Amino acid sequence: MSFNLVALPFKSKPLPRFVLLGALGMGLSVGWTLPSVAAATSAHTETHHLNIADGDLGQALNALGHQTGILLSYSPDLVDGMTSPELSGQYTVLQGLGLLLSGTGLQTEQLANGGFLIRSQSNATDDQAAALPLMQVEGAYTGYGYAAIENGEMRNAMRGDLAETLSIIPSVRVADSSSSSLQQGDIKPAELSIRGASPYQNKLMLDGASIDNLMDPAQRENPSNYTNVAGHSQGIFLNTDFLSQVEVIDVNASASEGGFSGGVIKAETKSYDGEDFFSISQRRTRDSWTNFHIDPAQLGEFGDGAAQAVTGVPGDFQPNFRKDQLSLQGATRIGDIGIFAGLDEKTSRIWQKQVVDIDFDHFAQTGRIFKPSEERSLDTYSRSGVLRLDWLEQDYLFNASLAFSEYDEDTFFINYLDSDFDSRHQGLNLSVNYGQHFGNTRLDLNVSAGISSDERYFKNDVLDKYRYTTIYQGGFIGGYGDLESEQRTLTSTLKLSTPLTDALTFDYGGELRWLNFRQNRLNDFTYNEYTLDFTQPLPPQTGLGSWSPSDQYHVREVIYQAGEIKFNNLNAAAFTELNGDHQRFFWHTGLRLERDDWLGNTNLAPRLSAGIYLDDAKRYRITAGANRYYGKSFMAYRLRELERDRILIRSRTSPTAEYQSVDANRDWFYQDLDTPYDDELNLGISGPLMSGEAGLMLVERKGERQVRTRYDAATDMHWFDNSGSSRTHQVDLYWRSTPAEWLGAYWAINTSASWMDKQTDTTYGNSSSGYLSNSNSADDEVWFEGKRILKRDLPANDFATPVSLNLDLITRSGDDRIQLRNAFAFTNGYRSLRNVGTDPATGLKQYEVHKQGSTLRWDMSIDLRLLQSRNSPYLRLDVVNVTDNQNTISAESNVQLFGVGRQYWLELGYKF
Known about the structure:
912 residues; mainly beta; seven-stranded mixed sheet; 7% helix
């Protein structure tokens, strides 16, 4: 389904650059498309059938944008009271604009990204008309399964990451930990799901280049990760303030898109848009500016700042923290080159406690038997930057961007003595885009090169485990040594588009992606296990069921040898697509052929979407689609098996026995895998409604051949297979008002609603991540709320909030010196799936759903420019959860997890 976004003009100064077209709350998966690299020259050569009535010029410009898919920017004062002639026939964009503006005294200027700025000829340098926000308008010929968010529309009150930005889109669900009261010191980007798929099955692109992490994105840091480095689905942690817009393709994807089974996220960095600017800002929050809602059962642990449980990484409880962000960005022009550059640093300091001990005196005083150690500070840094160059005023499009990010976290394992380590995630990507017409054929080419790495560096490379010593008395001592994972990519994508007739366009092209994977252990890591000699009288206990480490003997040694594991991979794809628009009908039909060299599979993905216009003006339309999307494969599939060759194991049965070698191959084995895929069916309707734009879409996604981790207790063997499956139903609804002037201000109201139901044989999210969670076969039976069902029919644990509502109210007043945004988010009750044990009669696992209450969060942002001049300091205040609602977002083991209470963010900056 799609909708048409008309140009929404605002009276605007250059520097605020906020686009108040009301897409904030709509976020729907249907409607906006980003300008392609073809836009820069197609305005001169490509013709469109225009049907525009005579009358108001502003309405005519909006109609032109709607029917051609171009970006327009103008002040409403410029066209107020002006009229334009009727247009009917075939015109290029420039011809259409020229005829509409003839005799008005207005002129057009084409910008670097293909958009057009409309200004007065007599006052071409007027600040008010110099750099208005670009409004995107979708033409009837473009895709109808898209959502795009402009820079000024991005929600960024709390984290400012992609997940928060995209949370306004109905098809998107965000991990609940991102808003948890327990972990407000965290600055790592949250994971997100699109159309119910796992987070690592989205495709993330920056300036036309894929920046996915294909190493081990589902892995999480925990004490059992001897050979694995924690990953993240995003190869580069993007600062959304450096993005001009973000596009999401979550339905009816073109055949040119592949390598995903969730959705495609296309981010575009800012570029020089005809106006020099520079800004600097400092943003911060503190624990003292935050209200925490904590389950009563966790209040003591939270106040102590250390988990009272047993072992793990710190971060479950963060009562003491401070977060800061420093950002610089600017744009200028040197000759024919437009330059944008941005640099950002986020820092977080959290005070944590590493060791928890049993202390009966502490219990007598506080009622808590566990006493934490002295607290220590942990520092986390997240830096990112981008440099973009655009060649201006050419008859071709050419730009290049260099982006990087680095995330560095100082941490440790709770109750693991001497387990301090440094965890890092780094990314670097160079992307070059070229586009030009050759006769009637449009060529668009992207070439990119990238590096992404996940690393950890431990203080120690020996871990000693004492089996009969409690974790509170030195049961684990040491660390896991230094381990690095790295991927290098070189990618080229080519797309050609040739009009066959006035109503039919043929698109075709291909993609090559070379990947080099490397895992490097810098030193031997030794895991030692100690136990008691039960053949002799046992020494005195130091506690209930606990003995001193000195009373235990060395029983087992595992050496993970230093060295590299390297392999290469070359994936290829080719696609063809026919795009048509004739009278009342429009359609996209295509095929994508993908070679997954990693798994040795060649897959054919058909794509089909079509629709009908319901009126002569082509404002209302019905769309339908049937598509297949093949997902990604990861280094983990083979790495687990290859790691066995670097493991040496020996053990003995008594203190005097000889050590015996153990076969390390009895752990993981590799079997051939198929590429997972999703089949999609959708139906939608859209068009104008009540001085706004409305749409409704129904989507079914059926996931097959999903990779799961299997384990056989009898043989103690692990392996991957394609036993996983899922089914997701989703209904999206939106209404977005046309912005209007009232009481001296501009107002926009945007609403969206989404209902989701998902069944799956495993869970996605914080506790597990699909292929790295042990899973019985999807065809196994389980008990669910008193009924025997297949495991594949269990509801999803998270990323499947049943009903999600968004409403945004955006206001600009005081000659744009004051900008106010109120954002509301509501869910009707979070479902948490629980394993409640095994049925004694049948031996089947039992599950039930714990239903949370509804949640409502109101976030407010106010931005005040202190001076009338465009060069002015500014003050911004973000208030998260204004009403301080106590929102339950999940629960486990009868302990509830609450969203953050009221929290304040303060930003001071200067814009030049």
